[in-house]
Amino acid sequence: MDLHELIQSLQTEGGKIVMLVSDGIGGLPMTPGGPTELEAANTPNLDALAEKGVSGMSLPILPGITPGSGPGHLGLFGYDPLKYQIGRGVLEAAGIAFPVGPNDVCIRCNFCTVDENGLITDRRANRIPTEESAEVVKLLKAIKIPGVEIFVEPVKEHRFVVVFRAEGLGGNVADTDPQKTGHAPLEPVAKDAESQKTAEIAKEFFKQATQILKDQPKANSLTMRGFAKKPNLPSYKELYGLDAAAIAVYPMYKGLASLVGMELVGQPASLSEEIDVLKENWDKYNFFFVHFKYTDSRGEDGDFDAKVKMIEELDKVIPRIIELKPDCLVVTGDHSTPAKMASHSFHPVPTMIVSDLARTDHCKKYSETEANNGGLGHFQAMYLMPLAMAHANRLGKFGA
Question: Which of 227, 248, 308, 363 is the most buried (most CB within 10 A)?
């Protein structure tokens, strides 16, 4: 019997769960002995929750392993990210409700800016606004490759999705983003024989796209990331017996939630609107995934102070969630994104569970230092859902 079979066998009726995910919440001090972003922030509401609940450190994957957003969230949702792997392209496509089929390979693409030598000067095309980006995406719909259906759809800002549909496509192709400026986009290279056809199609797509984009002021080139085919995942209803709702602003996180069978609710454009949606749908579901992006993006920008401000914005909505009286409130992140590193990192994530069934610990603040010695200890994120289920009184006894 594996973990999922065990959880399925123990399901009972119980209370409501809210999982509040502050993307990339974990951080590092900028100088030895200094505070992390979370410790520097003024968070009276999160700190009050820490006193009522139980805290610990979750490992998104395994010690020392830095997760992407997909594996990080899969772990939070109770799926072993080493067993269930979802490529970024599928997440982006699902996030805009593109109907991904069995013959599709999905690619998450970024517009970028290159100089006269084809070297990248801005990996995100100056974060081109979505309305501008969508117009440029329309130009790429003119690309034709014999024997392949091609779909090109805007996502948000510099991001867009490309889907290749044909027989015999594999999704194991290397990213073309060199991850730094001063270098040209890489060629798409197949990592196995089954994906060679996909790589050749991607090369031709890039060739035609660069001709179309060459005179654009910002988005004059592109990079391709997360080549992937659709995986087969058991749903939240099957695993946990939960009617689950996802509330998010960014399409990728909507996509991941929809792939595990959560229903996407509302069209929020801000954290405050996300809480509005939570309140409006409170009576319809018994599990809510609420996602906050900007702690991650400010960390990726290397902006310590801006990440602190985003954490303080998160703190302000906590009373509105508490007013709804969830039986179990989980506050966590999918990974750490220290401004010091300006990237995702391998560090554990401060996590707390607030419930009348929680065995409280000595933690007085929601922070890395406090959570490091909290009652939950250090645990793999894939065990967070069983913990949440238990704290919502939704798991029965195992064995006689």
Answer: 227
The span from the CA of 141 to the CA of 219, in Å, is 15
Give residue-wise pLDDT tens across range 198-221. 999 999 999 999 999 999 999 999
User: How would you classify residue 399: left for phi > 0, otherwise alpha for psi between -120 and 50, otherwise beta?
Assistant: left
Q: Do 152 and 141 contact (CB within 8 A), yes or no? A: yes
Nearest to 250 by CA among 66, 65, 70: 70
3-state secondary structure of 232: coil
> What does DSSP assign to residue 378?
E
Tokens of 324: 């709804």
β-bridge pairing 287-292 and 244-247: parallel
Q: How confident is the model at residue 1 (pLDDT cuts 50, 70, 90)?
A: confident
Write out the DSSP string of 30-95: SSTT---HHHHS--HHHHHHHHHSEEEEEESSSTTPPP-HHHHHHHHTT--TTTS---HHHHHHHH
Please provide the average confidence, as pLDDT, over all residues in the chain. Answer: 95
